[in-house]
Amino acid sequence: MGYALSFLDKSPIDGDEPASHALQRTLALARKAEVLGFRRFWVAEHHNSPGLASSSPEVLIGFLLAHTKSIHIGSGGVMLQHYSAYKVAENFNLLSALAPGRVDLGVGKAPGGLPLSTRALQGAYDPARKPSFDAQLAELDGFLKHGGTEEIGADRLLAYPVPDVTPNRFLLGASTESARLAAGLGWGFVYAGHIHGDDTAISSAFSAYRDAGGTYALLAVAVVVADTDQAAESLKANDRRFRVEVENGQGVNVGSQEQAAEYARQAGATNYRIEERSPLVIRGGPARVRTELQRLHQRFGIDEFVIDCPVADAAHRLKAIEHLAPQGKAIAA
User: Tens of pLDDT along 214-231?
Assistant: First the structure.
């Protein structure tokens, strides 16, 4: 049995160019991915990041759906801790009503930014009443699956509109706890290998997912692909990841030591620890990349790969999609 390919884009802004240029490139990538047979095209959520235009995936998803025809469009992912589960359900039910069968809701636990933006996003919350992430996810799942066919009482809260097809649901994570949570809700599980690519951790997470009844496993990987192995090795890519743990706070993954130190500063932490992670990065020409994807597919039983291209150059990212889909087919038999 083969695997499918999907693509994750963060809408990077090149220097001082307008954000509109980055978003138009994201559209061009989505259209190219659709033509070449990619299953999904996902957009990320990042806050207070001047080099990225993807602060609101729901808005961008609606735009991409309107300008594509068949490819699944979704979030990779919505950072649920900041939001009302009810409002997220309304957003994605509406998107699904607009484009039946094509909408993916990927949810992540990370903040998608540093403490300054987190405080701005959660300023209206009473911390004592804020539910746990697990409780939020279960609530969101309930709002998405209500079906709308039951008789509705005066006090029954439902998330309208009711789409003909509910959005596909995925949990993004890199732990056995996230894997079990996804399986328990019947969601797909996306292991964030592009952030933490340790083989043992990947294996443990997918084993936990399947042991808990999970049925659809996706692996996010960073891919740097060029015409030849040598050309790929020479490309500069933002493929380093750092984990910062602060005392009595949420641990997060960031792209540099400087960002990790800034996270600790914004959090007001004097006691913190920074360690470099080992992301799963595949470098090489098309043949080498496909060989490694096949190895991972066989090693971990991956149903689908979500490709993150850490090279900012727009022309390279467009070419990367073409390299990954020989003869216009992004699905391996």
Answer: 999 999 999 999 999 999
What tokens does 281 get? 């990065």
Is the confidence at residue 148, as pLDDT, over 50? no
Closest listed residue to residue 183, CA positions, set 204, 208, 202:
208
Is pTM beyond 0.85? Reply is yes
Q: What is the DSSP string of 201-222?
A: HHHHHHHHHHHTT---EEEEEE
Tens-place pLDDT, residues 258-267: 988 888 899 8
331's enclosing H/E stretch is strand 331-332
DSSP 119: H
Query: Mind giving me the DSSP string for 217-280?
Result: EEEEEEEEE-SSHHHHHHS-----EEEEEETTS--EEESSHHHHHHHHHHTT-SSEEEEEE---
Residue ranges covered by each domain of the chain: 3-149+157-233+278-332, 240-277
Per DSSP bridges, beta strands 103-108 and 168-173 are parallel
Out of 168-172, 237-241, 304-308, 320-324, least confident range: 237-241
**Alpha helix (H) ranges present in 36-84?**
57-66
CATH T-level topology, domain 3-149+157-233+278-332? TIM Barrel (3.20.20)
pLDDT tens, residue by residue, 116-126: 999 999 988 88
**Helix, strand or coil for residue 79?**
strand
pLDDT for the residue numbered 98: 97
- φ/ψ of residue 193, rounded to 5: -65, -25
Alpha-carbon distance of 240 to 310, in angstroms, equals: 9
